[in-house]
Amino acid sequence: MLMTAPHVSQAATTAAFLNRMSIEITPKQADRLPLIKAKVPDGCQVYVALIDPADLPGQIEAVAAIRGLGLEPVPHVPARFVRDRDDLAGRLEAFAKRAQVRRALVLGGGAPQPGGRYDAAIQLLETGLFQANGVTAVGVAGHPEGNPDITRAHGEAALLAALKAKQAYITDHGLDGWIATQFLFEADPVAGWAAGLRRAGITLPVSVGIPGPATIKTLVKYAAMCGVGNSARFIRKQAMNVTRLLSVNTPDEFVAGLAKLHATRPELGVDRPHMYPFGGFDRLFDWLAPKM
């Protein structure tokens, strides 16, 4: 008798994918950590963004609080916010002492000009200071819809070359690695981009940025700030209708599409959803609760 694989519902596939989620906060949102602890899976990775260099002390406090709650802190380390080697060593030592940080997201950073001697993530990695301070896994940025700041100056090939260089460093130094993407609104661009990475020999797993439920007006603002591309067109199109500006967009279709890629196309390496709570944590968790 021919045996067939049991049918797995889309809801179950989506739930399994969402239970792999990570989430992002800023230092100023650290007061929301008790709520986050109550709502996310055990050991959830909580990224702490650094948008303003002056927020570094708050970032250190936040990663310590995350560790204290039994979650996994993942601080952003933007190259353009690091003055010099001593500055990098100081913050990594603080992360190690206060929070036993094992994972860090190493970025170029969004500042138009470097604030010190570094302007690229690979320069930070090559110091060797991450391993020296107990970091065993390094995330790097991915841009399924491009990065205008880089492509205008250096062309699309520069993004792929940079990823190859960072993967080579991660592999050669025995680190675990992953790619964290900018946020998007559709799964198809992720699939095409990830397939292109695999053809180019980049094998790092991918955490895909997902905007949580938020008003169209809020999403338009973040899309403009972060330079997300083609998949934001439908958000901007909706924004042209003034009566829809305050309507709430939810990422149901996007998450379902990513969950399907995770389950049925493992070669793409779509590993987990990374949630941006643009519409607030309460709205995000109200949306997540029936799905997990």
Q: Find the count of extended strands (DSSP E, 2+ residues).
A: 10
Mean pLDDT: 90
Strand content: 15-25%
By DSSP (H or I, 4+ residues per run), the number of helices equals: 13
Q: Give the fraction of residues assigned to helices.
A: 40-55%
Distance between termini? 35 Å
**H/E element sequence:** HEHEHEHEHHEHHEHEEHHEHEH
Sheet with the most strands: spatial strand order: 1-2-3-4-5-6-7-10
Molecular shape: globular
- Rg over C-alpha atoms, rounded to the nearest angstrom: 19 Å
Low-confidence stretches: 1-6
Which structural category fits the helices and strands?
alpha/beta
Largest sheet: 8 strands, parallel, barrel
